[in-house]
Amino acid sequence: MAKYYDCSFCGNRIEPGTGLVYVKNDGSILRFCSSKCKKNMLFLKHIPQKTKWTKKYVKAKTR
Q1: Alpha-carbon distance 50 to 60, whole Å?
Q2: pLDDT digits (tens, 9 = 90+) for 9-59
Q3: Per-residue pLDDT for 63 more than 80?
Q4: FRET pair for 55, CA 20 to 30 Å: which of 2, 30, 33, 40?
């Protein structure tokens, strides 16, 4: 049985065998669906709730 994960930045579902895994020095695991999400979170330091193309933005705005 394959396990599905959600992207740490945008919240999209990651299919098995795809995506990127980033392990921080403290041992926490970040999973990304694309390099776009990885760059926005780690290098550009964007906040998912303020980035319009993410599911987390839509969820934050509907509250």
Answers
A1: 9
A2: 999 999 999 999 999 999 999 999 999 999 999 999 999 999 999 998 988
A3: no
A4: 2
For the entire predicted model, the pTM comes to 0.86
Please give the radius of gyration of the chain, using alpha carbons only, rounded to the nearest integer: 12
User: Known binder of ligand: residue 7?
Assistant: yes
Query: What's the rounded Cα separation, in Å, for the pair 17 and 28?
Result: 20
Q: Is 26 annotated as a binding residue?
A: no
63 is in an annotated binding site: no
Is residue 39 marked as binding?
no
What domains are defined for the chain? 5-61 (2.30.170.20)
